[in-house]
Amino acid sequence: MKKYRIVLSEREIPQAWYNIQPDLPAPLPPPIHPGTGKPIGPQDLAPIFPMELIKQEVSQERWIEIPDEVLRIYKLWRPTPLHRAYSLEKELKTPARIYYKNESVSPAGSHKPNTAVAQAYYNKKEGVRRLVTETGAGQWGSALAFATCLFEMECTVYMVKVSYQQKPYRKSLMRTWKAVVHPSPSNLTNAGRKILEIDPDCPGSLGLAISEAVEDAATHDDAKYALGSVLNHVLLHQTVVGLELKKQLELAGEKPDIIIGCVGGGSNFAGLVFPFVADKLKGQTIELIGAEPASCPTLTRGPYRYDFGDVAKMTPLLKMYTLGHSFIPPAIHAGGLRYHGDAPLLCLLVNKGVIGARAYFQNEVFEAAVTFARTEGILPAPETAHAIKCAIDEARKCRSSGEEKCIVIGFSGHGFFDLGAYEAYLDDKLEDFAYPQHMIEEALKEVPVIEG
Amino acid sequence: MKKYRIVLSEREIPQAWYNIQPDLPAPLPPPIHPGTGKPIGPQDLAPIFPMELIKQEVSQERWIEIPDEVLRIYKLWRPTPLHRAYSLEKELKTPARIYYKNESVSPAGSHKPNTAVAQAYYNKKEGVRRLVTETGAGQWGSALAFATCLFEMECTVYMVKVSYQQKPYRKSLMRTWKAVVHPSPSNLTNAGRKILEIDPDCPGSLGLAISEAVEDAATHDDAKYALGSVLNHVLLHQTVVGLELKKQLELAGEKPDIIIGCVGGGSNFAGLVFPFVADKLKGQTIELIGAEPASCPTLTRGPYRYDFGDVAKMTPLLKMYTLGHSFIPPAIHAGGLRYHGDAPLLCLLVNKGVIGARAYFQNEVFEAAVTFARTEGILPAPETAHAIKCAIDEARKCRSSGEEKCIVIGFSGHGFFDLGAYEAYLDDKLEDFAYPQHMIEEALKEVPVIEG
Predict the structure, then answer these.
(1) How far apart are the CA of A322 and the nearest CA of chain B, in angstroms?
(2) Residue B451: its pLDDT value, please?
(3) What is the tens place of the pLDDT at every residue in B146-157?
(4) How far is B440 from A124, CA to CA, in rounded Å?
């Protein structure tokens, strides 16, 4: 009998996160303090992160136990299903077997709660009363609001003003989960006031919202800051996805040939594929592909060097593929993928050739999204659709070559909050943005030159 | 170890729907032809429904096999999980054990695809190329668009114009699933044109959209009409919900004391509780409660008599609790519950005292919704929140009495498309509507007097 969904029981939920750090093929370049040029230490991060997360950031333990209180909340939606995409296969007339790991079933609609719940827990445990963050499209802000609400903490979200106005439903969702949402720039921080003085109508940016959130957390004793991607501990928490996937593929009797996820800051993709990296390093043949927008082609066109994580240069310097911290990607609908850099752990593996990357234009991505929705019936987020586009391309290659590959898609989130973008695509009103090389080079001129 | 979700495997999905007709405590009064005053026969329904559904409408077989092609699509999201609401219980400090059966995980976000998929299948099998329907808030239209898309059929949806304008995302979702969506009144039908001549700015109504959809189907050979609730075959298809629930409660070692669902046309609630009705008739103590809006109090305040199913008096007369076919409920946000009548099967059981009903105001319903979202983390649709409100009341009673009852909520859909209503509630801008008795009596004057 055909199996459509591979579902694990509650007992099979992973009991520990997988920390890739001891298994890396080369040492991870440390974050650098921009003032001293020296690696930063735990004390530098203590004002904005709780100690347990700082420890996870640098841990060399391969397995880190998931606390019971976190597991309890994971069980609201985890383990998530692995679906076999029979209808998509049929549509593509491919001999490939396509699967998708469905993280859209979380209450916030994406993979983001996997780390939001963990971060809220460790902060709460260390006496933090309030978490502060920024959000662009709203996925991360929603996830953190959800998590803090369940732990009875407060949550402050600085939401890029243009998103705040264009996506009022995301704001309402955060408010329903008790978060206080401010359009950024706000007059609540120095960073915000400074901008508003110059330009009262400033639409905001993610970089600016980060500056406001960090300032808020750093200047209030009972508050800490939370980040939804890029950092090691965030990627660590997302490995529940790949660990479940591994079990599910075994149950299905499959060995994956290709695993594909979309990449913004890299946490969704890393969580999906890191548990397979050790196998690959031991010689197993498996392709791991990150799919990113052609309008923000970090992994495919950026150099691998130290850069700031934010526009305002408040973060440590991280070694990563970067388009320059001053790079402003065009306003594509996959807002979650508009980040100038990428997670250092992921970048190291791309640099060592363990992980590959591809970039796609907006219209071909939405074409793939609609094909998926019309065959599999589930509506993907625009971010997720990048991975689907890549999988469709690979499945079509199999059609030509006759190869019966096993292809796995990381289905990171649903598109119920992105229907305006679908409408624009259906009405043939979506633009394709590619970034001209000279503009990337321009932005890279502002990146500090640091050896490492 | 605490069990948070009771999840069934694909193998445990029901293989047959449960038809309650042979188990009814009294014969079901037949639908009456308004012209002849006689019971209608299959030939009267043949222009708008396929024969297999007409047969199901009157079948006396207790079990009706679910076709493989329908099961194949059900497996995209079925079996759905049964959750234990530990956090809600804790918040309410109740000794009651609260469960919720989660139908919001379907690709369209509600229970509606359970029948949409079945209806699309039988129509396709009998050579129908296109299905036509109406939709108010958009849940049913989305579900039918989803189902027809997967069966590679066409779908035409007449969407109440005011919803079409206020809920553009629902329209975009239907378009993504290839449906053609017309704001109703449209100039595509006589019914629509007639209204537009008198009032070009008419905002439309569900009754009028039904008239347009039925006319479209009846006047095109390759098209049929599909209804999302009320009729026997629709309730039949929804019994997969209650059948799964029964298995899941057994696995949890529970005997339910109270099962609660929201009631609009009655299909969600019937699907949830019908598999438990036979047990109740055999003497098992179990309370089955339908929760409806105080602004449209069909079961709690309407008389039990024959009435039309639609405003335009195009349908057969059905024996049901009714507020009168000309009754226009206030524009509450639980659009799916704004129906003047209820499913005849359900009404018979209410009339015989097997099933009970309660009515709630809008603000108390949203208060319950927010309590649920803030404890269990999942955002309910406003319709679903009626059942949650009732469950919270019952759980509070247990707190007073010390009774350790097992209470089950039918979680019929998520609220991602209803965040405007949540925002209004959070901003204290929601109105409570109750319907004055004299206005109900006024509407009932138009109901034809028929014995039976």
Answers:
(1) 35
(2) 63
(3) 999 999 999 999
(4) 53
Query: How many other CB atoms are there within 10 angstroms of residue B242's CB atom?
Result: 24
- Cα nearest neighbour of A373 on chain B: B177
Residues of B within 8 A of A107 (CB-CB) are 377-379
B109 to chain A: which residues are within 8 Å by CB? Answer: 416
Q: Nearest CA to CA, how far is A422 from chain B (Å)?
A: 7
- Give the ipTM of the model, two decimals please: 0.94
CB B388 within 8 A of CB B380: yes
Interchain CB distance below 8 Å, B7 and A3: no
Instruction: Identify which of B1, B175, B419 has the shortest CB distance to residue A173.
Output: B419
> What is the rounded average pLDDT of the residues A13-32?
97
CA of B433 to nearest chain A CA: how many angstroms apart? Answer: 23
Query: Residues 6 or more apart from B225 whose CB is under 8 A from it?
Result: B48, B49, B131, B132, B133, B213, B214, B216, B217, B218
Helix axes A344-351, A232-251, angle to 10 degrees: 60
- Sole residue written with tokens 């979200």: A157
DSSP, residue by residue, B289-351: EEEEETTS-HHHHS-EEEEESSTTS-SPEEEEE-S-TT------S-GGG--SS--HHHHHHHH
Inter-chain residue contact B416 with A176, CB threshold 8 Å: no
DSSP code for A335: G
Residues A188-233 have pLDDT tens digits of: 999 999 989 999 988 888 878 988 999 999 999 999 999 999 999 9
The pLDDT of residue A206: 81
Six-digit token pair at A387?
Answer: 């991975």
Query: What DSSP line would sit under B420-443, residue for residue?
Result: HHHHHHHTT-PPP----HHHHHHH
User: What pLDDT score does A446 carry?
Assistant: 86
Those residues with Cβ within 8 angstroms of residue A221's Cβ, 6 or more apart along the chain or in another chain? none
Residue A309 φ then ψ, to 5°: -85, -15
Using CB atoms, pick whichever of A10, A378, A416 lies closest to residue B417.
A416
Question: Is the pLDDT at A311 greater than 80, yes or no?
Answer: no
Mutate to test the interface with B, among A6, A71, A76, A164 (most CBs of B within 10 A): A76
Residues from B in contact with A at Cβ < 8 Å:
1-5, 7, 9-10, 72-73, 75-76, 83, 87, 105, 107, 109, 146, 149-150, 168-169, 171-173, 175-178, 370, 373-379, 416-417, 419-420, 422-423, 426
Q: Do B3 and A9 touch (CB under 8 A)?
A: no
pLDDT attached to residue B388? 98
**Quick one: pLDDT at residue A356?**
98
Taking CB atoms and an 8 Å limit, are A422 and B175 in contact across chains? yes
Q: Rounded mean pLDDT of A371-397?
A: 97
**Residue of A12, A13, A89, A169 to mutate, testing the B interface (most B Cβ within 10 Å of its Cβ):** A169
Nearest to A73 by CA among A9, A116, A125: A116
Using the structure block, give the residue that is written with the tokens 């933090």. Answer: A128
Q: Is the pLDDT of residue A30 over 90?
A: yes
Lowest pLDDT segment from A11-25, A159-173, A239-253, B22-36 = A159-173
Per-residue pLDDT band for A1 (boundaries 50, 70, 90) equals low
Burial of B329 (C-beta count, 10 Å sphere; 0-12/13-18/19+): buried
Sheet holding A97-102, edge to edge: A5-6, A82-84, A97-102, A406-411, A258-262, A287-293, A356-360
Q: How far is CA A155 from the centre of its chain?
A: 20
pLDDT 10s digits, B175-215: 999 999 999 999 999 999 998 999 998 888 887 898 899 99
For residue A192, CA distances in Å to A158, A200, A201, A206 come to 10, 10, 12, 12
